[in-house]
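User: I'm writing a tutorial on reading structure tokens. Could you give me a worked example: one chain, its sequence, then its tokens, then a sentence or two explaining what the tokens reveal?
Assistant: Sure. Here is the example chain.
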Amino acid sequence: MVNEPEPTEAPANADPKQAYRDAYDQWQKHLAGVHSLLLEGNRLPPEQIKGLLNREARAKDRYDAARRRLLGIDG
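And here are its predicted structure tokens:
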């Protein structure tokens, strides 16, 4: 898996629907990498595993935040 720069969070005034779609797509991309490692048995060096898991976790956090904004429950 190639290390790509992660997108930053969308500005607060961005379209919540588009921000949600973008965050979901990014999370699914990183989750596919985790599934490749865990379910398909692809091997990576330990430092790359750590990076992969960290990227997926951050992408999930961005997705969760975008979802809350879309639902109107952003605190």
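What the tokens reveal: The helical segments are 16-38, 46-71. Residues 16-71 form one domain.
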